[in-house]
Amino acid sequence: MDNSTLRRILDESKTVAMVGLSGNWYRPSYFAAKYLLDKGYDVIPVNPNYDEVLGQRCYPDLASIPRQVDIVDLFQRTEEVPKFVQPAIDMGAKVLWLQLGIVNDEAAAAATKAGLEVVMDRCMKIEYARLFGGLNWAGVDTGIISAKRPRKVS
Q1: CATH number of 3-132
Q2: What is the pTM for the complete model shown?
Q3: Max CA separation in the chain (angstroms)
Q4: What integer is the mean pLDDT of 32-36?
Q5: How confident is the model over 63-97, as pLDDT tens digits?
């Protein structure tokens, strides 16, 4: 997908249902959600294991979200992706976004056939930072650099 298309998607979309968002601060989904919240996106956590993540009400599945969503952002295994396509279509999402390392051509074809744009094997956080963030293109300005805790130096 070219930069102008990614830029348009990120610029026009404001509500993101993040499927698989973890409440653990060291998980990539948490980094991405925090960053997108800080950039003004409305991030809706979708994970049956939590009531709330990052101060946002968490929903058990896409069908439970009571409002319009622009992007369904999947932090799911490749083989799990197809089961999220129809719920994304049913809720009127415009984009199905598969995170880094996730590629599923079958799911992409079904989503595209239904009129959704599909982004695969890319991180929203990284793409936003790269396209809109100037010198912070790597997207590391979440305030969390590493999952490792600093060691005491004696």
Answers
A1: 3.40.50.720
A2: 0.85
A3: 61
A4: 96
A5: 999 999 999 999 999 999 999 999 999 999 999 99
